[in-house]
TrEMBL record:
Name of the protein in its database record: Penicillin-binding protein transpeptidase domain-containing protein
Segments crossing the lipid bilayer: none
Organism (species): Streptomyces aurantiogriseus
Residue span of region Disordered: 20-40
GO biological process, one term: cell wall organization
Record GO cellular component, one term: plasma membrane
Domain Penicillin-binding protein transpeptidase: from-to ranges: 1-98
Listed GO MF terms: penicillin binding; peptidoglycan L,D-transpeptidase activity
InterPro entries: Beta-lactam/transpept, Beta-lactam/transpept-like, PCN-bd_Tpept
Amino acid sequence: MSPSTATRLQDLMVRAVENGTGTQPAIPGARVGGKTGTAQHGLGNTGAPYAWFIAWAQAKDSAQPAVAVAVVVEDAAANRTDISGGGDAAPIARAVMEEGLRLEAEGR
């Protein structure tokens, strides 16, 4: 991937967290980029969909992300139509990224 394409992708992922479908993992004092999604499951899509969220986070004063995560929730406790990556998987991603940023701040 070219550097300009990578920069554009990062910008789009940040926009998804700041103003789009992935607002739940926003972390005060950090730059967070992410992408939400759901995946069909089961023969003929008869199973509950999987909720997923991919993301990265970096401290505002850092030159690069400290942590990147991919979360898949296979058995969301919600009605089929309410399952979403932004609602079910993103809060888990946020907790992991917060811990990664905390460890980076401590120099670990």
